[in-house]
Amino acid sequence: MILTPELAKIRDEIRGYASSYTLDFFEVIYEILDFKQMNVVASYGGFPNRYPHWRFGMEYEHIRKSYAYGLSKIYEMVINNDPCYAYLLYCNNLVDQKIVMAHVYAHSDFFKNNLFFAPTNRKMMDEMGNHRTKIQRFVNRYGLEEVENFIDVCLSLDNLIDSHLPMKKMQSQEKISLLDRDDEDIPVVKKMRSKGYMDKYINPRQFLEEEKEKLEDIKQQEKHFPEKPVKDVLSFLILHAPLEDWQREVLSIIREEAYYFLPQGQTKIMNEGWAAYWHSKIMTKKALGDAEIIDYADHNAGTLAVSPGKINPYKLGVELFRDIEDRWNKGRFGKDYDECRDMQEKMSWDKKMGQGREKIFEVRRVYNDITFIDTFLTEEFCEQQKLFKYQFNPTNATYEIANRDHLEIKKQLLLSLTNMGNPIIEAVDGNYENRGELYLSHRHEGVDLRDDYARETLKNLHVIWQRPVHVETKFEDIPKLLSFDGKDFQERRL
Description:
By secondary structure, the protein is of the alpha+beta class. The chain is 52% helix and 13% strand.
C-alpha cells in the first residue's frame, strides 16, 4: 500500500528536517503493511522476494507469537538498498509514523556513508530476486527435498566467513608461471650418465617426460594447500569441495547473502544509536506538535528501555553518540584532559570548542561497533550510565555484580562483539595427512566451542567436503582434535 496524502505530507516534512541537519541518505520508498504482512517481510529479512525455505516460515511463527504475547512489536523495517525500501506498520498512530520516518532517514544515511557498508550490493533487492529464480530452477530440476536439504547444510555454515573482508569476491587461485617459481619447485628428472651420441637411447625423451609427470604428481600431492590459513571457509569450500555445479551455485548464494548482512551485525550498536539520536533530535527540535509530546516520550522511552541481562543497542549507541558530541563540544579529550587528576576541574571542563557535531559525523563514517566501543567507552561514561559486569554466584544461585571497572566492562563487550559472537574458524589444510581430508582450526579466544554445535557443524562440513573433517580446538585449555569420518565422531588430545 502506498502512502496516504497525510503520510506523504509528513514524509516530505521529515525528509526536509533530516536534510537540514545535513544527513545524506538514499532516496527512501515507503510502503504500508498490516501486521501479518510486516511479519512476513520481517521473516524474510526484509526481502519479500527471497527464495523459499522452511526457515523463513519458522521465523514468521516466532515473530507472530512474540507479537501475540506482547513480547515485541515491529514498528518499521528499512533495507540497505539504493533506493532504500522502508516498511511502515498500518496501525501506527501519526506520532509513531513520524518517529519511524526520522529513524529511517538516519538509517539510510548510515547505510550510504559508513565505510563498512561501502562494499555491499546496493541493488540487493534485485539480486535477491535473482537468487530466488536460480533456486526455484534447481528445485524444478533436482527436486524440493534435495535442494532444501542442501540449503539447510549451507545455512548452518553461513558464519564461516572472513569478517574482515566483507563482500570479498571469490577469486580463482592464480597459476604460478615457471618464470616466477623457485628452482626447487620445478621437478627435475635425474638422467643416467651417458655419452652424447648414446643419450637418446639411454635417456629416451618419452621416458623423461613420463618421469617428469610422475614427479609433478608427487609434488602436487605433497603440496600443502591452502598455503596459509583461510578465514573465508565458505570460499575455500566453493573453490575446492567436490560439489556439483548447482550445489556450488547454492553455496555461493548463501555466501553472498552472508556478506551482505555482515556489516549490519558489525555496526548494530552504532547504526541503531545513530538512528535513535537523529529521530530524537528531529522530533524534539522540529517535528513534534504540542499534543504529541506525551505519546512520543512514552514510545521513545520504550525504545530505549534497558532489560535485565541484555544490552539495548539503541540505548548504548545513542548515549555514546551524545557523550561524544558533548565531549568534543567541551574539549574533554586529548592529553591535557586525560592527565588532569582534579575531579572538580574535570567536571567543569569546558573549552567551548564546538566540534561535537563534526565529530559524530566522522565517527558515523569510519567506525564499527568494536572500534566504537574500544575508543569511546570511557570510565566517566560507565559511571554515568551505571554499567557493570555481572556473573552467576553458585553459592546462593543468583546473579550478582562482579565488577564495575570500565576496562573489564569494555573487555566483556568487545569479547561479545568480536566476530559477532561467533567462533573464528580457519581452513588450515585441504589435504590433511595427504588423504584429501579437511583440517580446520578454531582460534580460541577464551570461549570453548559448544560440543553439540561443533559436532553438527562437522557433520554438515562432511556433506560438502565428502571426506573426513577435523577441527583443532581447546576444551578447558586442553588442545583437542574433533573429527568426523561420515559415520563416527572421534576426539583426541593433541
